[in-house]
Write a structure and sequence with these properties.
alpha/beta, Rossmann fold, Jelly Rolls, 677 residues, six-stranded parallel β-sheet
Length: 677
Amino acid sequence: MSQFFLIDQSLKGVGGHHFDYSFQVSRAAIQAGWRVTLGTNRKFSALNAFPDCRVCNTFAFTTYAPSSEMVGIQDMVAARKPSVWQKLTGVVRNRVRSARQSTSGSTTDKGNDFLRRDRQKRVHAFRRDCQQCFTAPFGDQDHVFFTTLSDIEAEGLADFLNSRTDSRNATWHLQFHFPLLRGRTPQYQEQADRLIKLRPTFQRLQELARKFSIHFYVTSQTLKDQYDLLGLKFVNLAYPVDPAFHSRVVRAAAKGEKTNEADHDSACRIAVAGAIRVEKNAGELNTLIGSAVQSASDSREQICQAEGLRPLKFLVQKKKPKRMDQLWRYFFHRPYFRRIGKGDDSQENDSSLIERVPFPLPADDYRKFILSADIGLLTTYDSQTYFPRRAGILGEYLSAGIPVIVPAGSWLADQIEPQQQEYLDSLVHGAGMPLQPSNIRHQSDRSTSVEFDLSRWFEKSPTTDAGAVPTAPRFLVLGFRVAKPAGHGHYFRVTPQQASAEATGQQGLLTTQSQWISEDESQIVGQPRDQESRLLAFSLPQVGQQGNRNSSSQKIGFRLENAYPCRQWQVEDVRLWMVRSTERLPRSSVGLIASEFEQTPNLIREMVAHHDHYRQTAMEHAQAWYRQHDPQLTFSMLMDAKKRSGAVDLAQQDKRLEPVRDFGTPEHLPTKKGDAA
């Protein structure tokens, strides 16, 4: 029987990303009739968690090394919460370092020496651990899959492959999960030095790929854009999701149900799942919950009567601090015990608002926790960190048909935008002829203002029969196309400007001197890979039934500018639609995108008010989403790797980096201007 080796040197225990990924892929391999060998960290002792696999716990180190040149790993290591022992020893270490610096000067060279020694130690250890794991000769049909590699493990693996002649018989699959560069696509050009440091390692892999059957993978399309700069052909491998999250959607579809079993008379359960880390803005969580609760409480009676909102309940997954950590916080960080709202712990202790969920949870309990949620909240995630990097929790929410709220300018928002654009396109389809801008002002290369004269709409506004419910304006939908620059990763902020509203002509329109849209309702939208137009909906406030019939003009403006660092750009085909309806309309489908963290309470209110719509569209979207994240698809893509071509020419990839024209060989490497790490 052919063997399938799955190696994750960071797998140390049950639960979490590493365990779930390995479990799903190994189960898919076993179901396909393969004999599976699992390589784990030495600390992994739950051998019964993989009863059908041979477990080889030989690897000494994890991927998270301070000496790695990958930005994503460096940030993960820097964001790690130190233990009590590390805190205490760190105090002593800093004092010694200060003393040395005062007597012998800078300690930069000593720090670099430490990183070089650490890197050499880890490279050697990974080669040794591979030798201990792969003891039997490789067969022609064997496959080896490394789920999460860094540049350090890549070097160690290259040394191992050169030392084993029979390794040419097997097919090797190398997956990289962490970003190489910081920021978004327009910022890559400024970080060519980082790629220079990584280029030798991947050049070795490219040379080996000419002798061995080696295939390279990443976990997202935006991550692929980064790794393609190294000169190898990387494939965006389907990311597996536990089928248990999707099973409820399958059962609902089989029964012909439109929605899953949501209790409309119970509290709306908003889940904040996963480990609370620095890149997830852990410090903002209490502020978010406090503001959301306060926003709902201030107008609870009015909202419930008008919109039928359900009460809120936040389910926050949080790791229980160890006893030593509790003592440390008590003596050195007493402000830690302050609760939501300036020392007021009433909201924190109110079990009707907030429920603390342990972290980590057993697999069955975690699935129940996710499936019990009505809304998945992810706006605390740092959008820059998660621009190329995927969030596994989002995949679980979407597979389960749970609507989500995500931050703009990130991989998370990219998964929601297509459904949002499709929904808005359906709204404007029957909204009549769009308005063309009456004035366009290019204030700079990165800012444009457009103005629309709405008087034509008011002159032709439909009248209603006696006793009929007027069709009031609900949305203004702005559409535009980005002419340049071309490419994914450019994001634009659209902000409504103060309207000059003088009067209206028909029922249901705004009265004199009213403001059409709040200027705080700015939105961020990215440029798609397909170069299609972008649509943005701006909801209108509730208006009176009587208007001034002696109207003269109505105008409204929008300002378009860079949301993040971006090149010069230009918009074209700008249009505006007015969407009318007798009922309040949701502004999106499947999920909502928060341009700013402060918008989260209003987005929660929007999703709770139209929860049936968002849940239904999320359930429909779950079918297509899970087909792309089925563990069986992940395994089949690995098995079909030989059908794809191998490496590409490095010289062609060098053209992607304009500041560095030729750095493919050592003699052409420019002088470093500093430590890129």
